[in-house]
Amino acid sequence: MATDPRNPTDSYLSFWREYHMCTLTTPRPDGTPHVVAVGVTYDPGNGLARVITNKHSRKVANVLAAGPEGARVAVCQVDKGRWATLEGVARIRTEAETVADAVARYAERYGRTPTPNPDRVVIEIALTRAMGRA
Prior knowledge:
Layout: E1 2-3, H1 10-17, E2 22-27, E3 33-38, E4 41-43, E5 48-54, H2 58-65, E6 71-79, E7 82-93, H3 96-110, E8 120-133
Antiparallel strand pairs: 1-8, 2-3, 2-6, 4-5, 5-8, 6-7, 7-8
């Protein structure tokens, strides 16, 4: 079921606030999908999803390989019969305040603050589509 990523239903937003591991799917340079487990935060007010990660990761390389226009990606979470997917255009953000904000959002959702990492970056996804059954 489609939903507006900037104006989700209460149940959809509530599901994204629960503790669930997610998957991130990025396109490899050859076009095949690369799927990995990640933590994701959802910010409907700004139309964004965020993933914190190491700048040397394959997922970051895949996003960067897509060029300045960004990469079309999807994040998804599943819990029994409930599921939710967010799609959009990913770009890599390295600004210290952006990374700190993403870490704080991660800590709020997942109940722990990640160990400091000078190589941490944010995969910031400008959302274009949301769907699910939450």
